[in-house]
């Protein structure tokens, strides 16, 4: 079977990926509304805590080598029986193939693990609240910075263009009491939206001309995002414990929202699903991930209990979507107070099914045991980057398969098994 034939077989059953044509943009919003209705009735899991018990783990814990078992303790692999040796030449597929194979109850012959770690540091100076690539020039980034500026940075070293600057507070020991925390760019509207630490949201043209500046939240705006399938819709999330959905064509004040989604805790992020834009994924600062659907914005379609509590010196944990399927990926920060907590619980990357709210699998490598705050798939969805401290972890099936083959050869040698 070809590497991606499994995914193609499921493409009709999973989230749609067809893009609306530019000349039919007016039909985009109708499209995502219909897709949401076809997802089925809401699962009765609001307030329930059963998802954690049904988890299927996709990692192999690091363990010593008991007698009668073969494996490689250094890499964290333990083979339960000799039958796994027959699969040493397993095909190299994308990460999603193995996730969905696990969802269907299939045998996980290949275990995903972290395969590369690279150094990563920000620009000198203040912290960065958010970054977004320019949709027009691949070498440029929109950067929301703690120094009170929203700028267009050039990766090739050309001059930085400051397109918005917070007001100077005039205090003796510092001059910035207000700074930008989030940013997003709409290519179709040629617009940039940014939010600051006191609740203001600013809409600008991509060239930096301010369209309006309104106080849309009571407190810090942690996230802003345009809906990629409906150009006039965007969402904002805030530590005031709300997510708001707006019509870009009709904003006058903070009460002009289309929908108000109240939360029990401050909210770190609110992402529209990239496949159809009909779902919204929010992450609070404690232990809830919510999935809302356009069929009924007034209540969560799924509420997923998950430990990811906020910590002062930790990058806020944010759940994100897979680019082509309704999969949710999020880092775990084990909490002794969380229901179902186990002693020495691992800091995994957890993957959930966005259509059911149930856990699909967990990714873990014993050589990279830190807290993973941010996760992002590449556009094809076959490689995952995870942010952990000053490192970025790259999860890639092809390189993992080569490592697995190496471990199998060592195992056969150690057990004196002829290939």
Q: What tags apply to this protein structure?
A:
10% helix; mainly beta; 4-stranded antiparallel β-sheet; globular; disordered N terminus
How would the blueprint of this fold be written?
Layout: H1 5-10, H2 28-37, E1 70-72, E2 77-79, H3 95-103, E3 116-119, E4 128-133, E5 140-145, E6 149-154, E7 161-165, E8 180-186, E9 191-196, E10 200-205, E11 210-215, E12 221-227, E13 230-238, E14 242-247, E15 259-262, E16 267-272, E17 279-284, E18 288-293, E19 302-305, E20 320-321, E21 327-331, E22 349-353, E23 359-363, E24 374-377, E25 383-388, E26 391-396, H4 397-414
Antiparallel strand pairs: 1-2, 3-26, 4-5, 5-6, 6-7, 8-9, 9-10, 10-11, 12-13, 13-14, 14-15, 16-17, 17-18, 18-19, 20-21, 21-22, 22-23, 24-25, 25-26
Describe what you observe in this structure.
The structure is a single chain. With 419 residues, the chain is mostly beta strands. The chain has a domain at 49-124 and 322-419. The protein is 10% helix and 33% strand. The protein is built from 4 helices and 26 strands. The chain has helices at 5-10, 28-37, 95-103, 397-414; strands at 70-72, 77-79, 116-119, 128-133, 140-145, 149-154, 161-165, 180-186, 191-196, 200-205, 210-215, 221-227, 230-238, 242-247, 259-262, 267-272, 279-284, 288-293, 302-305, 320-321, 327-331, 349-353, 359-363, 374-377, 383-388, 391-396. The strands form 7 sheets. It has a 4-stranded antiparallel β-sheet with strand order 3-26-25-24. The chain has a 4-stranded antiparallel β-sheet with strand order 4-5-6-7, with no helix packed on it. Strands 8-9-10-11 form a 4-stranded antiparallel β-sheet, with no helix packed on it. It is globular. The model is unreliable at 1-93 and 107-125 (pLDDT under 50).
